Amino acid sequence: MGTDVRDETRNATSLLESNLMAAAKDLRNETRKATRTLERNLMAAVNEIYKRITALEQVLGWYRAGNYNLYKVFTERANYTESLENCEKYGARLAVDGIIDATILRDLIDNLINSTDYGTYVGLDDRAKEGTFMWLSGKPLIAGEVRWNSGEPNDDLGGGQDCAYIRAEAWNFDDHYCETKLNYICEKMA
CA within 20 to 30 Å of 59's CA: 4, 37, 52, 123, which one? Predict the structure, then answer.
């Protein structure tokens, strides 16, 4: 009789362990499924938020380029210093990254700058040291990084042209007097 009780206890314990293991496996599978569903739903929500933000940016006149930075051309002409200050008011700076990258620059010219009929300041100047153009990011201009207009930069053959801009008629770069009022393009980092 004692053996029967032990056998029944062993069988009941084994059955209980088997049921618990099956329940734990089912719980793991259900947790994985719920996690995947949650991840999909979260990604869909993030994508929807991104679409709405992009639409709002466009309404406000900002353009999101392929580098995910935002750009806006301002046609209320300003000198270079005013352009710097105006960009800062928007939490931005005169464009640098989108200007250095030739693909992004082409995109910006096609979608923003091309619609203007006047030169556009970018974040490049040689105000600190004549002849050494520096990006606002602090990096020096590398030879061939931008396409200068023929004979440029020339500092007007006498001095004083320290601020770079994109010429409206050729979309090449030129140096100009920083006091000259031009369009300007601001860049917000992604």
Answer: 123
Query: How distant, in Å, are the alpha carbons of 21, 118, 126 from that of 122?
Result: 66, 13, 12
Q: Tokens representing 17?
A: 């362990």
Q: What is the DSSP string of 98-131?
A: HHHSHHHHHHHHHHTGGG-SS-EEEEEE-SSSTT
Separation between Cα atoms, residue 5 and residue 135, nearest integer Å: 87
Residue 67 burial (CB count, 10 A): 17
| pLDDT, tens digit (0-9, with 9 covering 90-100), for 151-180 | 888 887 667 899 999 988 778 899 999 999
Average pLDDT along the chain: 87
Residue 172 to residue 103: CA distance in whole angstroms: 15
